[in-house]
Amino acid sequence: xKIRRLYIKDFGIFNNQHLNGIDGNLxxxxxxxxxxxxxxxxxxxxxxxxxxxxQQILPPARNKYEVEGEILLDNDEVYNLExxxxxxxxxxxxxxxxxxxxxxxxxxxxxxFTYQQLFTLSLDELQRLPAGVNKNDGDKLQSILLGxxxxxxxxxxxxxxxxxxxxxxxxxxxxxxDVKDFKPYNEKIKEGLQLRKEANSQLKEYNRACKELAExxxxxxxxxxxLLHQRYRLDRLDLLKNxxxxxxxxxxxxxxxxxxxxxxxxxxxxxENISRIENLNERYRDGYKNYRIALNKFNEEIPxxxxxxxxxxxxxxxxEITSCYNELSGLxxxxxxxxxxxxxxxxxREEIILMTGEVNNSWDGIDDFEGINSLGIDLLKxxxxxxxxxxxxxxxxxxxxxxxEVTELQEQLRGKREQKEQLSxxxxxxxxxxxxxxxxxxxxxxxxxxxxxxxxxxxxVGFVGIGGTIIYGLMRKNSYNIYREQELNLDKEVKQLEDKxxxxxxxxxxxxxxxxTIMEKLREYxxxxxxxxxxxxxxxxxxxxxxxxxxxxxRRWQVEGDRIDENRESLIKELKQYVQLVENFxxxxxVKNEDNLIGEVDGLISRVTALNKYKDLALTVKExxxxxxxxxxxxxxxxxxxxxxxxxxxxxxxxKMEKFLYKAREYRDYLEQKKELENIKLNxxxxxxxxxxxxxxxxxxxxxxxxxxxVLPVFGSLFAxxxxxxxxENSYKRCMKEIDSLEGKLEELKNQKQSLKDNIESLATxxxxxxxxxxxxxxRTALRKLAEKYAVYKSGALILNKVRQRFIEKTKDTxxxxxxxxxxxxxxxxxKQILPPDNLIEPDFRAVMxxxxxxxxxxxxxxxxxxxxxxxxxxxxIQKIQPPLPVIVDxxxxxxDTYHLxxxxxxxxxxGRTHQLIILTCHPHFIKYLPDDNLKTQYWQLEKGVFTxxxxxxxxxxxxx
Length: 961
Hints:
Layout: E1 2-11, E2 14-19, E3 26-30, H1 37-46, E4 66-72, E5 78-84, E6 90-95, H2 103-106, H3 112-119, E7 120-121, H4 138-146, H5 150-153, H6 156-171, H7 182-200, H8 204-257, H9 260-268, H10 274-301, H11 307-316, H12 318-326, H13 328-359, H14 370-373, H15 382-425, H16 428-452, H17 455-528, H18 537-582, H19 601-638, H20 650-688, H21 691-701, H22 711-719, H23 725-762, H24 766-815, H25 817-826, E8 831-835, E9 846-849, E10 854-855, H26 863-880, E11 887-890, H27 898-911, E12 917-921, H28 924-928, E13 937-943, E14 946-950, H29 952-960
Parallel strand pairs: 3-12, 3-13, 7-11, 11-12
Antiparallel strand pairs: 1-2, 1-4, 4-5, 5-6, 8-9, 9-10, 13-14
Helix pairs in contact: 6-24, 7-24, 8-20, 8-21, 8-22, 8-23, 10-19, 10-20, 11-19, 12-19, 13-18, 15-17, 15-18, 16-17, 18-19, 25-26
């Protein structure tokens, strides 16, 4: 099973936190203190069981505990898991056959206590009785740690103790007849025996039998004494046989370690420098190797010559080289820009030459622009020219306008004069004279008619004449008035036209004079501009603009030329610095043409680039050298080489370290032998200090041994009597035969003694004998029942003890074998075995060191060793539970030193090949030991309840800061 995704909506410090795409067998979550690691551990502990009510250890929820996630099983089925409040977890299959119906099936039906104690590892779990586990649950915890079979056998020590307690109530520890419940009946038997003895005391035969019994008892006592000494001898031979090889090895070690050179080495060798020299040896070899590689690469790149001098020069000028190199791209770009500008400058010159020809044909082909620039065009005011052109145009237009007006006025005046002439030709007085003459004629005719013809005809004619005259008078007066008015008007209009014509002619003459002045001004402009064409104001104006623009272009071109010249001078000045730099290094070559540095720039750049490369190589050499120089100084101090002249001679220093480490190996070997000697001596002493062994040796010595260590010299003198272990074994066999013989003879004497006793009893008086026998029989009957009950309890306790011992042997060889192997690896062989305690219920273990020295309880172990032992036991149990469940490790190994940490992590990472490992830590050095090429590892940063996926280096840097 693996956790593939988690969403923590509400739990303590966590609020709407996603861990999507949890991947890999090794998931590392790093965070500083109070980042939320312990809270996250609580989530994982209760993920498959639900959050318990009333637990003070759980952080409060903002509203209601809510956690959701995805779980991937080994059969590739994917389940969604939801926790809400204190309810049981709910699961839902989202991919697969839906073969699981309850969350307990996913967690292998393990109870919460078992899962937390095995699969969530913090410092609390790596102790004899973890925090939160009371003494009443100690046997349950021990059952979990020892595993299979313990639930059936765990009560054996209790039953054994109960049987022994019941037996002790009856007959004490040894079942002696004069103690506890046995005592009254034994006293009764004694009374009967005494009574029977008194009854037989008077009999002669009784006396003889008693004498014979006394002789038999004497022989029994004598043989028992001999048998006792033989048994003591057998015990001594057994001790000698079992410790013969150890004592022989002890003698060899004492002889070896007593040699002068060994003693001097052990007393004078600087042990405190060994680990430092070992560390420096590996680091210095790597550093010196890297230094030689860098130096060889430098020498390969640098042309033949004094390469050391070249290297020092490169280091001396490293800043200048770096500065020049860093500016190369900009320099090259500026030179490219300069070349491009110079090209554009030349092309622009050609364009300006073409422009001059287009502006003025006489300038065609001119390449000296000073003449054009020297034109006094700057002295001319463009506004003034524009105004002159405008005045010219306006004056011409006015002249034309005035000419048109004069012509029109002349035409009008001519018309008016013609009208006047026509009016004069039609004067009314001339026209009406004819009518006057006619009227007069009619009047005369009328008068003549009156007189000549008749009155009425004369009157008619006369009236016509008079009427005509009257009409004439009236008409003449009216027509003349009209004529005079018209004549006066025409005279006035003619006068006005004549005056206006005169004014316009004067204005026209002034305009013509003004035009001459303007043309004179324009002629001055044309001469100043060397205008080659016909004098025309607009053309001059345009020409002026073209010349002005041409001068502007020429001046702009000249300014650009000045700027390019300045740029060229600046570039040449800068390039001379480059030349000055590269000339310090003859192996880069020389500049061919210093007069054309810009043309030589590619070669110069190439040499500066090469110099930068050589400089980087020189810096690399210096960097590698700076790494090994402090180590060399420390090595000289540690090896007392400070007076020797050893400047960066790696091989010589390495040889010195090799000699030192060779001596160190010898020193450690002798230390191990010395330690082995002490262990052997301690083991032998532990064997000899038992009461049985001490009694046997005192019997051999013939006196008490006052000092506890005094048994060893006695054992040594006993050892000296035998040439080999086979000799001891042969003596042991002979002693066994002698004991068997003595026991047979003693058995015969005891039988004889019993016969004599029976005979003596039968010789007593009948009444006393009957009374005595009754008491003896009653006492024996009651005593036999108690003895049988005592035997049952003792036998039961013995059988249970044997069963427990067999179980312990089985546990030692099978159930704890894997834990022992892990413990041995973690402790680098210092401990070789883990054994259960004698009392299996007690949550404890025994640790066996090299030399079979047994630490009877974990309480005497150091904190680190104790944590290593319980870690090994838990890891072995985790591996035996299938299918595998995720293992959560919360800074479990913080009390391990660097070496034991590395060993423990190897085993934990091996577990990661089959299990998902989720490691919570705040220690950056812990993460440095985690990478494993065979494990896919994922890193997360936890900061104040916020998860962020990251990488190993960034997580280490974050935790380091």
